[in-house]
Amino acid sequence: MTACLDISNLSATLSNGQRVLRSVSLSVEPGEVRALVGESGAGKSMIGKAVLGVLPPSVKIVEGSIRLEGADLGALSAKERRRVIGAKTALIPQDPLTALNPSRRVGPQMTDRLVHILGWAADRADKRVRQLLDEVHIREPDRVMRAYPHELSGGMRQRVLIAAAFAAEPRLIVADEPTTALDVTVQKQILRLIAQLQKEHGTAILFVTHDLGVVAKISQKVTVLYAGKVVEEADTAALFADPQHAYTRALMAATPKYTDPLASLMPVDEAVLAGLAAEIAIADHDWRPSLDRKSGHG
Amino acid sequence: MAEPLFKVSGLKVALPDMTRKPLVGRAPLVEILKGLDFELPRRSVTGIVGESGSGKSTLGRALVRLIEPSAGSVSFDGRDITHLPDVELRPLRRNLQMIFQDPMSSLNPRRTIGAIIAAPLKQNGLGDNIGARVAEALKRVGLPEHFAKRYRHELSGGQRQRVGIARALALSPDFVLADEIVSGLDVSTQAQILTLLEKLADEMGLTVAFISHDLSVIRRLCRQVIVMRNGEIVEQGPTDALFADPKHAYTRDLIAAIPLPEIDGDWLKAG
To answer: Within an 8 Å CB–CB cutoff, is residue B35 touching chain A?
Structure first.
C-alpha cells in the first residue's frame, strides 16, 4: 500500500547554511494519525510547512523527498506541485483568528478552496460546507456563515476551520497545534471532533503538537523530534509503555500530571541534553547534501 | 495559625465595556468580578485557576492594586488597601511584586538586563553597591553575572522568565503575583522555571498567588486552589482535598478535560 505521506531523508538549511532538518524520515499511512512532537525549534512545524509547500523563503530543502500518495513533490513543476498539494491536503492551523481574514464573512472563506482551487460550482460548495458545519455540531450554519471571524468564540472559529479542512475530502490534513490556543474544556471537544471526522472520512493526519498529553489521546503513531532530528519513532501505545530514548523519557517526566504530582515537572537532565548535542554533532559531521534534486522545491 | 497575608471580602471589579461605548459619553460598566471572598495564607503558594474570561487575571491585578475595586475590601498585611491613593500605595509596592506572562513584552528591549533589575532597587533607595546587588539577584535565579550586560533579545525564553523572577524578587517582597508565567514555555523549560519558583518561595518565605489555566501545574506547585468561572469562585480549598474530591461539577469538568500523557482509549469519548 502506498503511504499517504512519505518523507524520506529530508534535510533543510537556512540561507546561512545552518541545518534545521536533519535527514528526517517519516510516513503517514492512509487513515492514520501520526503525532509529531517536540519542543520549540524542533522543526515540527517546519515539516508541516514543507509538506504543504509553504516553507519561508529562507529555508531550503537540500536533500530528501516528500511523496504525497506516491507523487514526489520535488520532481514536479511548481504549478503541478501546487495542484497536487491543493487537491490532496488541507491545514488546520493553530490560531484560527489569524488564519481567517477579519474583513470577510466566514462562509465565503470556507467555500473559497472548493470553488477556486477545486473548481466546484458555488451552490455545490455551499451545500458541502453546510453539511460539514453540521458534522462539527454547528447548529446555525446561516448565522455562522454570515458572521465575521471576531463575532465567533475561539472554539467556534476552530470548528469552522476543521469543517473547512474536511470539506474538500483531503487525503492528508496537517494539524499544526490546533488546540494550543484553546481552553482545556474546549480543547477536549475539538480533539474529539477531529478524531470523529478523521475516522468517518478516513483522513490521514499529521498532528503537530508540543503536548504529550494530546499525543496520547489523538494519535496511533508518533515521531519525537529534537533540533530537526528524529530521536524516536513508535506506535503511540508503545512509546508511552516503554519510551526508548532518554529525551523521550525526560519529556515525559517534565510533563505535569495531576495524578502523580511528584513525578511531574522534572527538569530535563543536563546529561540528556549533552547526549542529544553529541548525537547531532555526529549526524552533522561529514554531512554533505547530495544535491541530486530539482532546485526550488519548498 | 498566623493571620493570612491577604483578606478579601465581597470583592467586585467593574470595568468600562469599550465595545458598547456610545459615540459620546461614557462606556457602560461590565462587572468582571462579582463579589469574591477568600484569604491568602502567608508563606504559601495559592493557585488561581480558570478558563479565559473567568476573571483570574483581573483578580490578580486587584490584589496588587493595579486596578481599584468597585466594591468590597482587600486587606494586605492587616491594612485596608482597597481604595488607598497612589501616594500611600507607593511604599507598599516593594512588597507587592509581579511576574508577568510574557517577558518579551515586560522587559524593556532598550535596557540591559542589569539596568532592568537595578531599577526597582534604585527606586527603593538601594542604589549603593548596585552591581553586587544585581549580581546577587541574577545568581538567585541561576543566571551568570555577565548576563547583566545583555539585552532581552539575546536571551532564551526560559532565561527571560528568570530575569522576570529576578526583578520581582530583588526587593525580597512579601507577596508575588505570578500570572501565567510559564504558559509560553516548552515543557522542559516550564519545569525548570516552576522548580526555581518553588525553591525560592520556600527559601524566601514568599506568599505567592499563582494564576494558571493548567490544573496539572497547580497540583504540583500550590498548597491551596481557588477555581474561578465567570467572575465568581466556584470552589476553593486545599489542593489535595480538591483533587481527591472535587465538589463542584465545573471543577470536575476541568480536571476531566486535562489530557494526561498516558494511553486511555475512553478519554475522548467520556464527558
So the answer is: no
